[in-house]
Amino acid sequence: MNVLSLLGRNLTQGPYTEPFPFGPAPTAKRFRGRVTFDAATCEGCKICERVCPAGAIRFSKAKDGLAFAVWHNSCVFCGNCEFHCPTGSVHQTTDWHLAHEQARKYAMVEFGLIPNQTCSECGATALATAPSLRGIAPPLSAEEAVTLKSLCPKCRARFLKARRAKP
Ligand code: SF4
Ligand code: SF4
């Protein structure tokens, strides 16, 4: 397309660019933006931390459990964490509003905490991670799922073993 036809098209149809920040800027549905984390559904497998090429995801021990952080100033928005997460607990939103002043860099971090809990069976302290439900057949009832979540890893294994042994 030559310059004159381009000018003609822009005059009749308007430019391709959006008027942001003076008007709305539509975002593509599959845009890979800010990463969010849902501690309630996380299994604590740390796959997301291992597959992150930028080292933007960090799990660390905290007084009350296992802390999670995504540093958006390191994230390259590749989508690896969401792709490999077995539970959909890390998710890339279409939010791209991440430009910030240096003083606000800590506001650009997504924090989460998988809290400690007391095992409802043996009383041990363990992380309240979501239990892995893959391969469990027949599927757990809602009541069984709540019970399983309240147990420590050893008691979860015992619970599932006893369930498998039932006729
Ligand atoms: S967010 Fe997903 S990949 Fe990361 S630890 Fe939790 S379950 Fe595993
Ligand atoms: S989108 Fe990519 S760079 Fe960003 S946290 Fe996930 S794996 Fe890491």
Q: How would the blueprint of this fold be written?
A:
Elements: H1 3-13, E1 35-37, H2 47-51, E2 57-62, E3 65-71, H3 80-84, E4 90-92, E5 109-118, E6 125-127, H4 142-149, H5 153-165
Antiparallel strand pairs: 1-4, 2-3, 3-5, 5-6
Bound molecules: iron/sulfur cluster (2 copies).
One iron/sulfur cluster (SF4) binds at residues 42-48, 85-87, 89-90.
What is shown here, in short?
InterPro entries: 4Fe4S_Fe-S-bd, 4Fe4S_Fe_S_CS, NADH_quinone_OxRdtase_chainI. Residues 33-62, 66-95 form the 4Fe-4S ferredoxin-type domain. By secondary structure, this protein is α+β, with helices and mostly antiparallel strands.
What report would you give on this structure?
This protein has helices at 3-13, 47-51, 80-84, 142-149, 153-165; strands at 35-37, 57-62, 65-71, 90-92, 109-118, 125-127. It is α+β, with helices and mostly antiparallel strands and 167 residues long. The protein has a 4-stranded antiparallel β-sheet. The termini are far apart. The model has no long low-confidence stretch (mean pLDDT 92).
The coarse silhouette is elongated
The helical percent reads 25-40%
CA-based gyration radius: 23 Å
Query: Which small compounds were modeled alongside the protein?
Result: iron/sulfur cluster
**Mean pLDDT score, rounded?**
92
How far is it from the N-terminal to the C-terminal residue, by CA? 74 Å
Could you say what the CATH architecture of the largest domain is? 2-Layer Sandwich
* Structural class by helix and strand composition: alpha+beta
**How many helix segments?**
5
Low-pLDDT stretches are none
Output the strand order for the largest sheet: 2-3-5-6
Number of strands: 6
Largest sheet: 4 strands, antiparallel
The sequence of SSEs as H and E is HEHEEHEEEHH
What is the count of distinct domains? 2
Percent strand equals: 15-25%
Query: What is the CATH domain class of the largest domain?
Result: Alpha Beta
> Within the CATH hierarchy, at the fold level, what is the topology of the largest domain?
Alpha-Beta Plaits
